[in-house]
Structure formats: C-alpha cells, structure tokens
Amino acid sequence: MPLGGIPQRQGQGGQSCFDKVKMGFGMGFVIGASTGFLFGGFQAFRFGLRGRELATTLVKAMGQAGGSFGVFMAVGTALRC
C-alpha cells in the first residue's frame, strides 16, 4: 500500500510532474497575492491613496508578489519531482 494509504488502481498513474508544478505555482500565487494585498494595502493607505490609485497599486502589488512567490514555489516543486 502506498504511503498515502489509498491504493491506486492498475493503469492509473499519479499526477505528472507538470501538473505538480502548475499546482505549486497556483498555491504560491494565491499566497503571494494575499500577502501583496496586505502589504500593498498598508503601504497605499500610508501614502494616502484612494480610489483608482489605490486599486491600481493593489493590483500591481498583488501581481508582483503572487508572480514571484508562485515562481519560487513552482521551481521548488519541480526540484522535488
């Protein structure tokens, strides 16, 4: 029996390495985007941004943090494949 405790049927493989890397990127992007929202939001409020400027700053911070942390998680997952 595999370590997970759930036996696999004959002919069914697990996830491919590419699927695992995609999942790692997705999880990293979500964590990074939420962190970017928190830190970018505090910084934007500190600078006194409101309205469209606030939204633009938050989207940029979320995209940058999510993208960078997603790439790190994807690379880490690829190394483990």
From TrEMBL:
Keyword Membrane: yes
UniProt keyword annotations, A-Z: Membrane, Transmembrane, Transmembrane helix
GO CC, any one term: TIM23 mitochondrial import inner membrane translocase complex
Membrane-spanning segments: 23-42
Top-level taxon in the UniProt lineage: Eukaryota
Protein localization: Membrane
A biological process term (GO) from this entry: protein insertion into mitochondrial inner membrane
Family: Belongs to the MGR2 family.
Function: Has antibacterial activity against a variety of bacteria including S.aureus, P.aeruginosa and M.tuberculosis. Acts by inducing bacterial membrane breakage. Induces production of reactive oxygen species (ROS) which are necessary for cell proliferation. May play a role in inducing oxidative DNA damage and replicative senescence. May play a role in the coordination of mitochondrial morphology and cell proliferation.
Protein name: Reactive oxygen species modulator 1
Phylogenetic placement of the source organism: Eukaryota, Metazoa, Spiralia, Gnathifera, Rotifera
